[in-house]
Amino acid sequence: MPTPAAAPGAVPAERAAARARGLTKAYGTGETTVLALDAVDVDIARGRFTAVMGPSGSGKSTLMHCLAGLDTVSAGRVWLGGTEITGLRDRELTRLRRDRVGFMFQSFNLVPTLDALENITLPLDIAGRRPDRDWLDRVIDALGLRDRLKHRPAQLSGGQQQRVACARALASRPELIFADEPTGNLDSRAGLEVLGFLRDAVDRLGQTVVMVTHDPGAAAHSDLVLFLADGRIVDGMEHPTAESVLERMKRFDAIRGAYEGDGSAGAAAAAGDTARAAALPAERDPATSADGTGGATEEV
Ligand SMILES: Nc1ncnc2c1ncn2[C@@H]1O[C@H](COP(=O)(O)OP(=O)(O)OP(=O)(O)O)[C@@H](O)[C@H]1O
User: Fold this and answer.
1) Can you give the pLDDT at residue 162?
2) How large is the greatest C-alpha to C-alpha distance in the chain, in angstroms?
3) 108: closest CA among 140, 141, 152?
4) Residue 51, domain member (yes or no)
């Protein structure tokens, strides 16, 4: 049983699809050190849709990368299911990721020379695994891709490409799907569709999804929103709505404004970011993020 002081969303270890204790990540050394994650304790409950939100630079992508074993940690421990991944060798980590984790990124990362079906089964092919045909059929039908399987990415709309990326993430029936701004490159309708599919993946297919987003409307599709600020999980919200998430995000903006002086360019930009995110649920311009990274993680 979680104690009152437990982290938001805390669950017993056996119900956690991923878990971290004291997770700390520092980039750089000496004066240029950035503490991206500051002793984070987090539990990702199995069979739930968890959203991770927070101001630009708060550590959302870093948290996702460390939980997924895409990045090393500076201190602390991380588990995927019952397996501790901190301390695993590269090869073991690669195999574990390949077998047990699905990924969706803002840029769809499809291979242009392969058709949709080949893209969907690519991770399985690389792993030398045979797809479970029944499962694959369910995923393809759930995502409405049946009549697009022979199309190459260039012959698909952005929304269809993201649906292919979603099917690829689901194809191996992973224990956990990590989605980093999966609607970031889509118009609002296509974005809503993808969020609906992620929701269905949890409700109908029993999957576990963790999604990093800037968009309160997107976070409203989740079961639990974890709020990050300055590398720490500072709050959690069950049964979120776009309005309640937006209100919570505004409080970050207010705090930031107080630190930087009311009416400062930083405060105005931060408030503008959130307001814009709420107004345009699925359209996020990477150029508007304060550090200019736009949460883009294509390089991983
Ligand atoms: N490879 C890196 N080298 C140095 N600093 C980094 C690196 N990656 C991230 N950081 C820094 O770590 C902090 C957290 O970054 P992170 O990308 O996790 O934040 P985020 O909340 O995902 O931001 P955004 O919403 O803008 O995508 C930021 O200060 C960022 O500049």
Assistant:
1) 87
2) 58
3) 152
4) yes
For residue 201, the enclosing domain spans 13-107+175-286
> What residue's CA is closest to ligand 1, atom 6?
27
Please tell me the distance between residue 161's alpha carbon and the centre of ligand 1 in angstroms: 26
What pLDDT, in 10s, does the model give residues 14-47? Answer: 889 999 999 999 998 888 899 999 999 999 999 9
Q: DSSP labels for 93-117?
A: HHHHHHHHEEEEESS----TTS-HH
- CA dist., res. 73 & res. 50, Å (int): 21
Helix, strand, or coil (residue 264): coil
Residue 277 sits at the vertex; the CA angle it makes with 271 and 282, to the nearest 5 degrees, is 170
Task: Kindly report the protein residue whose alpha carbon is nearest to atom 31 of ligand 1.
Answer: 57
- Domain-embedded: residue 264: yes
**195 in a domain, yes or no?**
yes
ipTM passes above 0.95: yes
Distance (Å) from CA 231 to ligand 1 centroid: 10
pLDDT tens profile 204-254: 888 999 999 999 999 999 999 999 999 999 999 999 999 999 999 888 777
Residues of the chain with pLDDT under 70: 1-6, 255-300
Domain tally, the chain: 1
